[in-house]
């Protein structure tokens, strides 16, 4: 069930796609490598068994070359609340830096890592990891002072604007589902995404940032160059 999907154009798309989760409000121009234990997340949106997420993942990026620090967010898009789906902040860490072998050094952070824990019987939840350049003299805006106690209902777009974060550097996402038993409650419908709702809104982008590309049921947020590569790949299929 948790096996990885192989794409005929895997190497081509993996290099070019930007992988925030479908429906995530912000896209990134580059892919962030995410590693849980010995498992490097691939493809983006890989379904990960929950026990494997007990410890925070490791990250690397071959495209983030700046010596300046960054800000990492991890957000669940699919938390059921009052008949709808809302966001939950799983991790917020500033002063993220690049070390040897392109590995990211991630502090515990202002909001420590929280293991994915979707309700039993609910649809798979999508968890996006996204890194932004850290502004000079960065601090958490005052209105977010109690985020550790108020993770549910987080608004990524508003936080990014209020904190003065710019265009995202890189992103990736996983999915986690709780299959330990049968559902004991009724859940709201799955969140509309670009892949299951033709009229769904695309995420906020910046000049030259991503556009949706769906391959094998997985949505990739790809830039203009990626779209051109995808066209070549489509001919080859």
UniProtKB/TrEMBL annotation:
<feature type="transmembrane region" description="Helical">
    <location>
        <begin position="213"/>
        <end position="236"/>
    </location>
</feature>
<keyword id="KW-0812">Transmembrane</keyword>
<dbReference type="InterPro" id="IPR008914">
    <property type="entry name" value="PEBP"/>
</dbReference>
<dbReference type="GO" id="GO:0046578">
    <property type="term" value="P:regulation of Ras protein signal transduction"/>
</dbReference>
<keyword id="KW-1133">Transmembrane helix</keyword>
<keyword id="KW-0732">Signal</keyword>
<dbReference type="GO" id="GO:0030414">
    <property type="term" value="F:peptidase inhibitor activity"/>
</dbReference>
<keyword id="KW-0472">Membrane</keyword>
<feature type="signal peptide">
    <location>
        <begin position="1"/>
        <end position="23"/>
    </location>
</feature>
<dbReference type="InterPro" id="IPR035810">
    <property type="entry name" value="PEBP_euk"/>
</dbReference>
<dbReference type="GO" id="GO:0005543">
    <property type="term" value="F:phospholipid binding"/>
</dbReference>
<protein>
    <submittedName>
        <fullName>PEBP-like protein</fullName>
    </submittedName>
</protein>
<dbReference type="Pfam" id="PF01161">
    <property type="entry name" value="PBP"/>
</dbReference>
<dbReference type="GO" id="GO:0030162">
    <property type="term" value="P:regulation of proteolysis"/>
</dbReference>
<dbReference type="InterPro" id="IPR036610">
    <property type="entry name" value="PEBP-like_sf"/>
</dbReference>
């Amino acid at each position: 069930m948790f096996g990885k999907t192989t794409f005929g154009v895997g190497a081509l798309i993996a290099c070019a796609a930007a992988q925030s989760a479908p429906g995530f409000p912000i896209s990134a121009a580059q892919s962030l490598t995410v590693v849980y234990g010995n498992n490097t997340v691939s493809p983006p949106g890989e379904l990960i068994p929950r026990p494997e997420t007990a410890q925070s993942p490791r990250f690397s990026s071959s495209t983030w070359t700046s010596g300046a620090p960054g800000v990492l967010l991890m957000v669940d898009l699919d938390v059921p609340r009052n008949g709808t789906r809302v966001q939950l902040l799983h991790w917020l860490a500033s002063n993220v830096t690049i070390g040897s072998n392109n590995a990211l050094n991630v502090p515990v952070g202002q909001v420590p890592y929280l293991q994915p824990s979707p309700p039993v019987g609910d649809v798979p939840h999508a968890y996006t990891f996204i890194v932004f350049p850290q502004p000079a003299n960065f601090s958490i805006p005052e209105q977010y002072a109690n985020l550790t106690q108020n993770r549910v209902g987080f608004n990524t777009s508003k936080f990014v604007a209020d904190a003065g974060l710019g265009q995202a550097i890189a992103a990736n996402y996983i999915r986690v589902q709780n299959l330990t038993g049968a559902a004991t409650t009724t859940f709201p419908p799955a969140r509309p995404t670009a892949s299951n709702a033709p009229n769904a809104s695309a995420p906020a982008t910046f000049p030259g940032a991503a556009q949706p590309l769906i391959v094998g049921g997985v949505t990739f947020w790809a830039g203009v160059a990626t779209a051109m590569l995808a066209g070549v790949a489509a001919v080859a299929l």
